[in-house]
Sequence to fold (428 residues):
Amino acid sequence: MSDHDHDHDHSDLSDTELRVRALETLLTEKGYIDPPALDALIETYETKIGPKNGAMVVARSWVDADYRDRLLADATAAITEFGFTGRQGEHMVAVENTDETHNMVVCTLCSCYPWTVLGLPPVWYKSAPYRSRAVRDPRGVLEEFGVRLPRGKHIRVWDSTAEVRYLVIPQRPLGTDDWSEDDLAALVTRDSMIGTGLAIDPLVKEPTA
Amino acid sequence: MNGAQDLGGQMGFGPIEMEKDEPNFHAKWEERAFAITLAMGATGSWTLDASRHAREALHPADYLSSSYYEIWTKGLERLVVTHGLATDEELKQAKVLVPAKPVKRVLKAEDVADVLAKGAPVDRPRQQAARYRVGDRVHTKRMHPVTHTRLPRYARDVVGRIEVIHGVHVFPDSNAHDKGEQPCCLYGVAFNGTDIWGPDSDPDLSLHLDLWEPYLDLA
Fold:
């Protein structure tokens, strides 16, 4: 966020807090919402749905060639095998990084993100600097994330304009041939599944997020 | 609409600010704003497309200087008022002044897990054959609707190639405005970076957008 946004957040915080409180009070009294349901919604995304889901999917695709094929052919069905279904994951597509190609996901128009496998998006994903630049200068964006791609590597940027949600399958780090699925999942960061990062290289071990 | 939300390719926003071990919510009110918005969506009073339109219709200066959940809150205020569920005066006073309007359903805590797990798929049965085939070269329309659209400005009036046919999906341009779902074919379309950004583009860049048939002509 810019300095301007920063000032804004501080000066208006109490105003926004009041507006949200007013909405909750009014809509509850009118009978449109039920506060325990709000608590359940928050708890779900705080404790049950997050990038660990996606990491399990990616790790399975690394160790199980048949699963990888199913994931690339019909990601919605393959992800359902783990029980990760529903809101903001109704129509999934998995895109795979290779030696020749790097994939990166953005939503320039709002904040579309695969909630079922990654949870709720981080602030930077929803912010103007990322949304404006990811489609025009992905290489520059990646450098800000500490990722330097070799010249000539093809970059595919996926702008989530419809209800199709994208999961990037990062490349499996070298030297992990005998690793278990669980240990591999720990190498799969959230950013590596958005395409703004790579999977953790166990020889370097420098996670981004 | 050409609102502030249409950010692809705009310049001057500065570096990306990442936060290590970022929490889902940065304040209690963000949790509530998130949950109230989802719970109000569950009443079935408006579509997801209409809620996106309510946010993008904010004044551009307001949109760009608001945090994410502030945008959601302002969008929700607009939706409840325009749909007759509450009045501006009620929001101001946080008090019921006019009787509630009936809604289709009220989300209960015990139903949250099921509702989230079910989601709201937008694919629909196919009524007619897809007009384009994989590999076809298509030209995106030059258009500037004042209403909701999911064809970003940077991808208008350019030539791309159909990569995949996703099927028939609800059309947001109508669904955001009480004009029904008008389902139509959704395509994955690939564009060369240079065809969109010109000679300054990264030569190794391609862009991939999901676009509905009414956005496209045969090139």
Observations:
- Residues 3-46 of chain A form one domain.
- The longest strand of chain A covers residues 91-96.
- Chain A touches chain B through 87 residues (CB under 8 Å).
- The CA atoms of residues 29 and 191 of chain A lie 41 Å apart.
